[in-house]
Amino acid sequence: MKALIEGFLKFQKDAFPQRENLFKHLATTQHPGTLFITCSDSRVIPELLTQQEPGELFVIRNAGNIVPSYSPHPGGVSATVEYAVAVLGVTDIVICGHSDCGAMTAVAQCKCMDHLPGVAGWLQHAESAKVINESRTHVNETAKVNSMVRENVIAQLANIQTHPSVRLAQEKGLVNLHGWVYDIETGSIDALDADNRTFKSLVEHPTTCAVQARPVQAAA
């Protein structure tokens, strides 16, 4: 706790004064362009890896960067997605998995989680990714986990498209969907190319998009 308080004092002394005008503007409004959905893992910092300032990202973090499919009883993730899309009008949604993900490791290796019923229940939202991953041959356990991380990003992209607010924005050509996997050790990001369902280096292919917004077609 001491480190957190010292960090806050440093923020007040050094960082806040440098952005004082920005915070004055943000005091009464926000217009983030991107909804960024990623894992709660302490090593994954969305604003750091994308170099964004306060007010530029609307962030959801949870175990396994999961987006449950829409249901009659929506929870916190569903409410946040709806607010980001329908109220804030974000134009891009990123679902970002990462290397060495504890949640995806547990799923891929079928670890017993009887002592963690909340976690076990939550990770059932990755079941479709697990089924696909289990159907494939992997050279070793590391490769199996890495594949699970990617399949989970694909699965969560499918889940988020069941949300009415997202489907409506897609129908109007207002939102792009992106699937990323961040490698902690190298700092690299691979992005899903929906045309061939492969992940490409974002450095080499910066325009890669999982689901591109389509212009609205006029009615015949």
UniProtKB/TrEMBL annotation:
CDD domains: beta_CA_cladeB
Cofactor annotation: Zn(2+)
Co-factor: note: Binds 1 zinc ion per subunit.
UniProt cross-references to Pfam families, sorted A to Z: Pro_CA
Amino-acid positions noted as binding Zn(2+) in the UniProt annotation, renumbered to this chain: 39, 41, 98, 101
GO biological process: carbon utilization
Assigned protein family: Belongs to the beta-class carbonic anhydrase family.
Protein known as: Carbonic anhydrase
